[in-house]
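INTERNAL AUDIT FORM
Audit reference: QA-55
Scope: verify that the stored structure record matches its stored sequence.
Auditor: D.O.
Record contents follow.
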Amino acid sequence: MAAAPADVPAKDVPSPGPGWQLAWADEFDGSAIDPAKWTLADDCWGGGNEERQCYTTAAANAGISAGELHITARAQRHRGPALPAEQRSSTDRQGKVTRGFTSARLSTSGKAAWRYGLIEVRARLPEGQGLWPAIWMLPEQDRYGKWAASGEIDIMEAVNLGEPCAAGSAGCVTGRERGVLGTLHFGGVNPANRQRGATTAMPAPFDDFHVYSIEWQPKAIIWRIDGEVYAQQQPGDWSTSGSASPTAPFDQPFHLVINLAVGGHLPEQRNRGGVISQGFPKVMAVDWVRVWQCTGKAPTGSDCPAIRN
């Protein structure tokens, strides 16, 4: 699908550099989440990772406060659909399940998707064992096959922030977990999927907002935090069983997903292990989301101007 027309943000937005134009944005300046931009998940599936939350559409789990999107994870029992909407059918007998946590997942699927560009999200991440905030992208259509043959772009993932960690491990700062991951998933259909990524330490202050971004072009995908590059991948680093093209599967429109998971394989197998339920509720705050594309270059993404740090 084509990218959604650009919104005019409620406040001045500096360009990342000459030749870049705003394709889409949400500054979260309204009183409620904009349903024309975002869909809220309503399921207890667990993402295929054995996560422990139910995603709900309740204002207690996702809402706008003081110009910020707040995704709130709560330690509370909730009963909801066992499968996400796209996996349910009229003959589905999975029914409903009960989980011990609630949270929220927002997606632009079916509403806005982009092929190449600069995607920026300014967010403040919660701390705690078992927490898994993420900003990521999925293909609007499975052009090359089911996950992960059609790809996944993880702009930012973090698990167990603030928890004790082993000195010398990636993302460990003065004995506390500060790791931020940027990853591509690709290859074949699960379980023939592959992944490649990098981990860096979140810059201080750790309890403040930072800008997580990717610059996505046919020739490279570049990860930044606060404008500083920490990882890059290019054709040859990825592939798909669905095409021989060196740019596939990352040559098709992807939509954006923002969520806060509780538990799952990745966080529960690291740091102190499992999920520690004290200290809830936990909040992931998002100040704004901005998607930029090259002036006159949006169809190909080639030779985009340099971005200011």
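Auditor finding: record pair retrieved intact. Helices lie at 265-268.
Action required: none
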